Amino acid sequence: MNYTQKILNWYFRRVSLPYWMMLVIDCGIVFLSGVFIYYLFHRGYETLMDSYALLDTLAVYLVLTILCFRLFSTYAGIVRYSSFVDLQKVGYANGLAMALCIGAHYVMQGLPEEQYAVLTVTQIVAMYSIATMAMWGIRVLAKVLFDVVTSDKNAMRVLIYGTTPDSIGLAKNIRSQKPTSYLLKGFVSNEERHKHKLLIGEKVYTQQDDLAMVVKKKRIEGILVSPSRIKEFRKEQDLQDAMLSAGVKIFMVRTEQEWDGGTENQPDVQLHEVSVEDLLPRDEIKIDMASVGSELEGRRVLITGAAGSIGSEMVRQVAEFRPAAMLLIDQAETPEHDIRLMMAKSYPDILAETVVANICKAERMEQLMARFRPDYVFHAAAYKHVPMMEDNPSEAVQNNVYGTKVMADLSVKYGVKKFVMVSTDKAVNPTNVMGCSKRICEIYVQSLNRVMDNCEGRTQFVTTRFGNVLGSNGSVIPLFREQIKKGGPVTVTHPKIIRYFMLIPEACKLVLEAGVKGHGGEIFAFDMGQPVKIADLAKRMIRLSGAKDVKIEYTGLRAGEKLYEEVLDEKENIKTSFHEKIRIAKVREYDYQTINQAIEELIAISQNYDHMETVRKMKEIVPEYKSNNSIYEKLDH
User: Fold this and answer.
1) Exposure string (b/e) for 47-78, b if CB count within 10 Å is 16 or more?
2) Which of 29, 49, 420, 626 has the least CB density, counted as fewest CB within 10 Å?
3) What average pLDDT score do residues 194-209 get?
4) Report field, pTM of the whole predicted structure over 0.70
5) What does the alpha-carbon distance between residue 34 and residue 632 come to, in Å, rounded to a whole number?
6) For residues 537-574, b (16+ Cβ closer than 10 Å) or e, as one string?
């Protein structure tokens, strides 16, 4: 390391120069600028002869200048972090000082020439112009040297997606971070008018450019997506694939972080490398928090399946609305214990009881309902894995159908205001046992609601229907991650299989709004956005992981699985609702007495564990249930 580097390192390890030191330097610059200008106009001999008078004149000017420096606090900033605002202050201070000195010039014209060396107005303007540029230069030089000394040789070379004000804010933010984590090498815009223009000194590229060549030439390692362009970037599938194929990592601002697009006072932005969930195209979902809060605040809320993927998120979201008490039921002991710990830590002021129990135990459920007397029941407990339920149809009936019947009947008995059931898109034209069991649940609660229509203080039954949620227990994304981690292969059932996906928090928000705003009897189907091809999802996850030579293996459709899911049946009429993402399915209505008797018979059959007879009865109740890739297909002929 050379001496210059050592000196710079020594200096920049210090906190900052003292205020008085910066003031002395600025005053020295003004003084020397005055001497230099006088020399230019009068040359050496005259300058030497007038030296004492010149010193007196510059002393007066310095007094006025120091007052201006004090007024604008030009010396108070840390030089290495100088910004445009600091340069403005220097300009304003010198401009005011120049004006005051020009005024002093006319006063000093009447004084003896041997006492004061009078500078002309032109000389005063030139003097302060040179001083201003010199003071700016010192600050810029200090900042540049600081950036050079503190730059990390291992910093990631990046592009920024977006050319909006917050993109510029992000660029300035990463440049100001010390030590430097990212080296900005350009911007990417989808607006042709920005092509090849410069933005804060860096070139703007468009998607019409050969970005793969740009990445290779500039050795780009990452692309940072500006906050206001995240939604747009999610739709740019080709750009994402091009970046990932070139080995470029993608970073976004964490969603919980506030970002106002500012540049001067914005704290260091926290970027995270994206997961596949971040890249799936989806629209922002907003709910009417006021109406949800007004319904749930101060109420007693019971949630079944409280330790599951959906149930646990429901617990968190309901707790935010300060209910009077919560009864959280799940039969999985360890996850239920996790919920207990979470409630104690995050919501200690809410009375929350966690109970390990099976919803199929009617006597135990009645004890709990009689004691707790809930206002709202959110029923999320269910067996959901298609292949498992295809092999265990009797268990599917006993847990999903009978468990729902127990909770629904008790809700009527104990005066629950609203019962909200979480269903699935697999209930639409079901091809498997699990989907059919959930359709039977839908039919039962809807028919029970019809019976309650004319009852005073009746329980309202609302059904919410949606597709796969990202990151749920047993879903494809955690499975793919584990397979990639082990080096593959990644198993996909069919090259053409597609699924709808929604984030768990987004789905639960819609469940809450549909639940509190529904009037009873509705089946609310959520708009799941664009379907995702599972094979493409697997390919993208492999690219994101950076893993090499990981193969995709197609294993064939599993029992009961179909290529695509439907949130609505083509035969169902669709009605709009209070939310653009929630639609109301107008389905066939069933007579309560008839369906109740059929379900009682189904439950009785299931207790014999004759799977074929159980499924036969399910098909009688739900005629549209046609098995696919299953041993139960012979029942359809």
Assistant:
1) beebeebbebbbebbbebbbebbeebebbebe
2) 49
3) 79
4) no
5) 99
6) bbbbbbbbbeeeebebeeeebbbbbbeebbbbbeebee
Which of 179, 132, 129, 190 has the alpha carbon at shortest distance from 156? 179
Nearest to 41 by CA among 117, 142, 132: 117
CA distance 524 to 270: 38
* Per-residue pLDDT at 471 exceeds 80: no
Q: Which range is most confident: 73-82, 264-273, 291-300?
A: 291-300
d(CA 286, CA 102): 61
CA 534 to the chain's CA centroid: 23
- Asked whether the CA dihedral 258, 263, 268, 270 is positive or negative, the reply is positive
Q: Which amino acid is at 307?
A: A
Residue bearing tokens 């993402």: 581
User: Among 521, 397, 380, which Cα is nearest to 447's?
Assistant: 521
Residues contacting residue 102 through CB under 8 Å, at least 6 positions apart: 121, 124, 125
Q: Mean pLDDT in the chain?
A: 81
Task: Name the CA dihedral angle for 308, 311, 315, 316, rounded to a multiple of 10 degrees.
Answer: 70
Provide the CA 19 distance to its chain's centre, in angstroms: 42
Highest mean pLDDT among 33-37, 64-68, 145-149, 335-339: 335-339
Residue with tokens 């809700």: 411
Task: Write down the residue that tokens 């014209």 correspond to.
Answer: 109
Q: CA nearest 117: which of 181, 53, 195? A: 53
**Polymer length in residues for the chain:** 637
